[in-house]
Records
---
Amino acid sequence: MILVDRLDVTLSGKKILNDLSLSIPDGVWSCLVGPNGAGKTTLLKVLLGNTPYSGSVTSNGEEVFRSHQRNVAFVPQQPHIPQGITVAEYVTLGRAKKDGWGNESVKSRALIAEILELTHLYGMHKQLVSHLSGGEMQRTLIARALAQEPELILLDEPTSALDLHHQIEVLNNLQFLQERGVTIVSTMHDITLAAMYAERIIVMQSGRVLAEGDAQEIIHSAELRKAFDDRINVFTLDSGRPVIVAKKDGK
Amino acid sequence: MWNWKITATSAALVILVGLAAISFGPINLSFAKILKSLLGIHGGLSGQDRTVLIDLRLPRALLAALVGAALASSGAVYQSVFRNPLADPYLLGAASGAGLGATIAITNTHGDIYRLLPVFSFVGGTLAVLTSFFISGKFFAEPQSLLLSGIAVGSFATAIQTYLQQRHSSSLRPVYSWILGELTVANWQIVTWSSFYILMAIGILFLVSKQLDGLMLSDEEAFSLGINPNRLRVIAVAAATLATATAVSASGLIGFVGIVVPHLVRGITHRVTNRNLLTVALTGAAFLMLADLGARTLLSPAELPIGVITAFVGAPFFLIVLRRRRTVQS
């Protein structure tokens, strides 16, 4: 369980997160939604532990800042694409904390083969990462995060650069993880997809939490519409699945 | 992963080129006699030939190897720390600062300037890099800002240097020959002190080289893999700068080694150079000994500045790398 209590984050004189409190249960997929500038990415970085804050953020009772005991994976929105490194080597970097840099244990080798299979990267493990397409790159990033065998995985817009088919593929990979008890916190602009996969939704606006709770309840809440200045419509399909669409000209 | 065959090949190359470097010159010495002298076996070189080997060729080849290894490995490290394949060891103003220091030494001291020159250029280079760090301030937020302030500090130091040169036009020639790089002043004293700093710096770079792979990722990802990216950058840049400043103060400005060699090794191994830092250092040593051999023999008995040879090979190579990068990207 991660508990965030009265969190304030100020970056270069600007207040990004303001008196923010929330809880993130273990083994659950929580999704941060809200307009640009709401502070979603900053909150992810705080949860990772490398951004200074005031207030308290504890994971199982331990303050997270600069804590290297935790095993947290981070998948950024815009990855640095390294030159001269193959898919298999890149995924192996995920084992660095467990095996030590530059080493690879026998167990890791087997695990990586399994992960490459799962993420459909097996045939291309000898290709250079810099030669991959957007969808393959995103799968490689997630494969590296999986190789970490994390307790918590943080993803910043994991689907924003992908076509629909690849979005579903990536999200299915994450669901596979979540079924194995890993806690997932992601940000997502596509609220329809967020409602489809995440169990909990946290609505943010201007560095504050407007609402948090069960995904299906939050989707139909007034707070979600308020976060987007009432510029979205929420429809329910016959199957009961919610669909969120932006209004055109306020209608 | 690490390819020991390529490393072994580059080590063999260092020995071969090293032997050639101490054997060829205005006086050619025989391989067999050199080996006998070096191993202390009876029947080696004697008299003048022995003096040429021990007091001239050997320190010069060793200094070339040290400087080549220093420039090549610090180039490779700068390239991965700044995520910029065209970064070179002189980037942060080390060269211009050292150049200014050397110019001050040459224009202001009387008598034996070469005794003070390494000290002046070492201090100048280090001060310039520290100033770049100090001005950029935002190094931790954005490595590229350090690059920009390095360029500004470098231009400033070059401007002062040019001003000093114009005021003391009589010393123009020694300043220029130093700027183009020279190993003619090599002696055992220089080899001893520069090997101390260079081997220490390269040793530190070897220790952190595997973790440098983590800097290929974003800072958040590196942190999640147990790295403190800012501390790692400071250690790597400090060690690479120490190696560069020592190399510059021992031998002047020898350009393009820091770019040519890492890219050559990368081209052969198709790998990130961090994992081949030993190969990079060895190849750098062989490259510079070979360049120095060219500098001594091409216009023999006259000598070409070694910087001319490395630039002659390096500049076209640099353009090929640029072009290839563009085609890969498109």
---
Amino acid sequence: MKLKSRHLLGLDGMSKEEIALILDTAVSFREILDRPIKKVPPLQGKTVVNLFFESSTRTRISFELAERRLSADVVSFSTAASSVSKGETLKDTARNIEAMKIDMVVIRHPAAGSAHFLSRVVDANVINAGDGGHEHPTQGLLDMYTIWQKFGSLDGLRVCMVGDITHSRVARSNIYGLTTMGAEVSVCGPNTLIPREIEKLGVKVFHRLEDVIPRVDVLNVLRIQLERQKSGLFPSLREYHRFFGVTKEKVAKAPKPITIMHPGPINRDVELSADLADSEHSVILQQVTNGVAIRMAVLYLLGTSN
Amino acid sequence: MRKNKILDAESFRRTINRLAHEVVERNKGTENLALVGIRTRGEFLAQRLEKKIQEIEGKGVQVGILDITLYRDDLRGRLDQPQLKSTEILFDVTGKIIVLVDDVLFTGRTIRAALNALTDLGRPALIELLVLIDRGHRELPIKADFIGKSLPTSLKQQVKVMMTETDPEDGVYLVDVDEEGKEMRS
């Protein structure tokens, strides 16, 4: 069993077997992270370039650690200190870097479809680390892995994504992946932040947290981008918090404890209350640890298949 | 395709008994001793040896399972990707006498990978190698400390170890394969 594509561009269109292969492979890498020597040799001699055209701390460090722990050689690049600021196009940047003989590219870019574009212009394996409002497949995979680790299965599990669904690539990757794996996915947020016709992706839509809380196992709370308020999509952070902020009081109404997830970085006491983020039902830090294991699994599966 | 039975279930059992005795004899008991089996059949062999050692000495030893997939030197260039499984060694290998257990010793490349995998987990005081069958044709300077049976083979032959944990019976076969159907050396 191997992945069909040489690239990981998104979870849309990926089969159940492929997702299961990545999750299974991540189990082995998760174990390696608990060892005193957290390094294994399968990508020895391979060079991976991290192209980050958008700021990121967690994802970039997570990818770098994953690459180094597989013994790959790593070059990281962010826009501020690059010739992109001199007006070079994505295609030229990528082809120039490829001309230096590299094997894999991890790309984060503000434009949707940039990872797909890159996969057409370079020979290296391309991994999408977030392309605009489109997909963030490794985040989707690590969220699924975290849920799977906690519940033992994804089939029939009820997961709700809360917040700004319209601008969220994390939500989209989660929706594609989770529905493929048989989970029951819903979204909840203000009308202005839920895309029209999202039901076509196989999700239920709620506009009140009170309606969702009694019928879910997991709440995946998305970061609210503070600049969205300026564009008038919701009146104020306080009002957002009042209606869509996930708090201890609100989840206490659930028949059994709800598992709380967040892709980070958290706006404490805006989308998620601080006490709940630090509570025993929160798996936010497990998500971060699992992120390294999932990225190792993806890099390994793509990097060792010819 | 010709198939020769090298060990039947009875001689398989006797061989394991003898190997268990040799391990405790050479190491003067079970003090500080641990068995590490290489997936898949090395794992089953290690478990059977442990049972036997328990019978002989009245004391068990720890058993771990090693998956060497990540350390293979032929990881790239294989047509199908080997399934990665996890290593399950729930004790600290540092300072221990480790008996590394595998079914067939052939080129020695698996053992090279296993030694690297094992030393990445810690610093054992001593590593010994136990194999059920040594079929020759080494490509690396590696030699077993405990051997169930030395079996002269040709490169056209294949050694098939069967164990009831995954196969219908216990036994070892020497199989002649033609050039076309030649299995990969592992």
